[in-house]
Amino acid sequence: MKASQQKSNDKQIIERLKRGDKEAYSDLYNLHAKAIYRFVYFRVGSREVAEDIMQETFLKLIDVVDVVRMTNLRAYLYRIARNLVNDSHRAKSKNESVALDVASDAESVRGEGFMEASAELTMLSEALDELRSDWREIIILRHVESLTHQEIAQVIGRTSAYVRVNLHRATKALNAKFNSQVEGDKNKTK
Amino acid sequence: MNNAIEQLKKLKSVSPSGEALERGHYFLMARLDSKLAEKSQLGDILCESYTVRVMRDARSAVKAFVRIYVSHIALSLAVVTLFFAGFGALATYYSQDAVDGPQYVLKRALENAHIALSSSDRRTVLRVEQLGQRVEESQKIVQKVIQNTEEGSDKIIEAIQKAQSQAIVVREDIESVSLDDGVSDIDMKDIQNRLTSYSIALDGFEEELPEDIKEEVQKEVEELAQTIDAINRLVTTKDIDNVDSEDGDTQSGDDIDGLQGTNQATSTVSEELGESTDGDGAVLPDANDSADSMEEDEADVTDYVETDESVADEDVQSDEELSDTDVLDGS
Questions:
Q1: B10 and A106 in contact by Cβ < 8 A?
Q2: Angle at which helices A73-92 and A149-156 cross, to 10°
Q3: Which residue of A has its CA nearest to B28?
Q4: Would you call A63 an interface residue with chain B, using a CB distance cutoff of 8 Å?
C-alpha cells in the first residue's frame, strides 16, 4: 500500500471515528490489534500485560480521537501503546529487564511447526534483551512491524535521521550479539 | 549477519490469542458504547446547560438591549428635542429677523432719507417754508388788495353815482341853458376831459367791478358821452350862431354858473375820492393815482402769483421727493 493511499484511508477512518462509527472502530481493531500486541509484547514480555495494554491502547484512542490531530493512524496507535508500556514499566520497576519467552509464545501461537526454530528464537530473545531498550524498540518497529523510518520517528518522538542511524547501529549490535550466541551454542554442541 | 533480521521476521507470527482478541474487541465496543452514551448524556447535559445559559444570556441580552435601547431612545429624543428646539430658536430668530429686517431697512432708509433731506434739501425746505410764508403774506396782501379794491370800487361807484347825479344836474343845466346863452369851447372841453377821466378811471376798475355795476357805469358813461356829443353839437351850433353875432364874444356869467356848478360837483367828487383838485377841477390825478396804486397792487399780486407759481413748482418737486420718501415710509 502506497503512503498516499495509506494516508487517505487513515483520514477517512479518522473521520468515521470522530463521528462515533462503531464499525470503524471494529475495522481499526481488527486491522492493527495483532501488531500492537506484538509491539507491546516485545516490550513487556508478558502475554497478559500485552493483551491489557493492547486493549487499553484502543480504548485510549476513543478518548483522544476527538481532541488530538492525527495524521498517521498506525503510528499514533504505536505511540499510544509505547506510552502505555512506559507507564507500565514505570509502575513496576524502572530498571526491570524484560525476559522474553519468544519461543514459547511462538509455539503457543503457531503450534509445533515452529519448534525447530525455538533455539534460534531463544538466542534472538537473549540478544534483544542485551540491547538498549530504545534500540530494541526501533529494531522491532522496523523489522517486525515493518514501519517506515518516518513512522518510527513519529512513534518514538525522534527524527528520521536519528531512527536511521540508531537502527543501523542497533541492527549491527543485534547481529553481533546473535552471531556470538550462535557461535557459542555451536561450540557447546561440539 | 542477516540471520538476526531473518529470525526477527519470524516473530511476526507472534499474535494474541483469539479469545484475547475477542475480549479486546468486546471491551472496545463496550467502552465505545459507554463513551457514546456518555457523550450523548454529556451532550444532553451540555445542551441543557447551554440552553439555560443561552436563556440566561438571552435574558441578559434582552435586558441590556432594552436598557441600551431605552437609553438610546431617551438620548435620541433628547437630541431630537434639542435639535428641534435649536431649529425653532433659529427659525424664530430668523423669522423675527425677517420681520425686523425690512423694518430695519425701512427705518434706515428713512433715516438716510431724512439725512439726505436734511443735508441736501434743507435749503429747499427752508425755501419752501419761506415761500409758504410769502404765499401766506401774498394771500393776505391779495385779500387786502381785494378788500381795498372792493372798498375803492364802492367809493368809485359812489363817486360815479354822484357824478351821474351831477351829470344829470349838468344835463338839466345844459338843457335849461338856452341855445342863445352860448357855452365856451373851453368849458365844454373841460367837461369832456372830465368825462374822459371818468372813463379812464372806470376802465381801471373795469375788471374789478361787478358786471351789473360795470354795465351801469358803462351805460352812464355812454349817456354822458351822448350828452357831451349833444352839448358839442349845441356848442357848435352856438358857435356858428355866435360867429354870426355882432360882438362874437363868448359870454360868461350866469350862463356859466351851471358849468361852474358842474365843476364844483366834479371837485366834490374828487374831494370825496380823497384826491386834490386844482381850481377848475380839470385833472383827476387822484383817479390816476388810484389807478397807479392799483397797478402797483396788481404788480405785487402778479409778483406774488408768480412767486406762488414758483412756490407751487418747488412744492411739487418737494412733494414728489416727499412722496418718494412716503413710499419708502410705507405709509
A1: yes
A2: 40
A3: A59
A4: yes
- Where are the extended beta strands (E) located within chain A? none
Residue of B nearest to A168 (CA): B5
CA gap B202, B113 in Å, rounded? 56
pLDDT tens for A52-83 read 899 889 888 888 887 778 778 888 899 999 99
Q: How far is B53 from chain A (nearest CA, A)?
A: 24
Reported confidence tier of residue B308, pLDDT bands at 50, 70, 90: very low
Global confidence as pTM = 0.43
Provide the CA A171 distance to its chain's centre, in angstroms: 16
Cell numbers standing for residue A89 = 514499566
Contacts of B275 (CB under 8 A, 6+ apart): B284, B285, B286, B287, B289, B290
Would you call A176 helix, strand, or coil by DSSP? helix
Is B213 in contact with B157 (CB distance < 8 Å)?
yes
A109 → closest Cβ in B13, B29, B35: B13
Give B166-223 pLDDT, tens digit per residue: 667 666 666 655 444 555 555 666 666 766 666 666 565 555 566 776 677 677 777 7
Largest CA distance in chain B: 229
Q: Which residue has the cell 462509527?
A: A21
Do B8 and A143 count as a contact with CB atoms less than 8 A apart?
Answer: yes
**Residues of A with Cβ-Cβ distance to B26 under 8 angstroms:** none
Cβ(B202)–Cβ(B173) below 8 Å: no
